[in-house]
Write a structure and sequence with these properties.
The protein is mainly α and 45 residues long. The protein is built from two helices and no strands. It has one domain (1-45). It has helices spanning 27-31, 37-43.
Length: 45
């Protein structure tokens, strides 16, 4: 998935921090550990 300048996924809603494409997300996103260290670093630098 593409990322914004801050590293966040373009499908991530900036207000809710929820995926806007959750039901049709690619395998990479399915394998990504939501709430994991990398996720938190991207969302909360």
């Amino acid at each position: 998935m593409d990322q914004r300048g801050d590293g966040a996924c373009v499908a991530l809603d900036p207000l809710t921090s929820l995926c806007t494409r959750y039901d049709s997300r690619p395998q990479t996103c399915r394998d990504f550990a939501r709430g994991g260290t990398l996720c938190r670093q991207i969302l909360f630098p």
